[in-house]
Amino acid sequence: xxxxxxEKIGTIFTRVQGLLRGGAMKTEDKPIWYDVYAAxxxxxxxxxxxxxxxxxxxxxxxxxxxxxxxxxxxxxxxETISLFDNKRSTQSQQFMKIYENLKSQGALDEQRIxxxxxxLLAEQRQQSRLDASSEEPAVAGIELNVETKSQLxxxxxxxxxxxxxxxxxxxxxxxxxxxxxNIDSLFKD
Length: 189
Known about the structure:
The chain is mostly helical. The protein folds into two domains: 1-50, no CATH class; 71-169, no CATH class. 52% of the residues lie in helices and 0% in strands. The protein has eight helices and no strands. Helix 4 (91-105) crosses helix 5. The chain starts with 11 loop residues before the first helix and ends with a helix. This is Small ribosomal subunit protein mS23.
């Protein structure tokens, strides 16, 4: 019989080697990686009981990470984000575009750039809200453009409008449906 399949006893290489020596595996059935591993064995054998190397993990920070962390710490963005919507950028992405634009001009120090970028982002969001609110009454029955929606509020308004269109008075719906159980008859006793 071939060697044990338990990972604690030998490596996958030694197990395949044992199968080949014992005749349980034909040479034409050996894995593709076997000859490469035999020709170029690793410096340290990959065993389960080998201690992990003591290599310090480096912190990887991008220049924008510090600014973005400061933004999220001081001003919690309150927006819903759809991972399917690639056209719209998030508040933090908009902030970083404004911040990088101001930083490239180079006239202000870091703190003033941050504060100015916050002010410009607030103005931009306020303008988009005004644009969305001015267009909503004129387009009451039509589905709104994705860019003009002001996040969650407009989504709720849209859902409420669709529900109002499809809903009918409760008593008529009970008579028309004809499917399911009549709740009124269940609780008459």
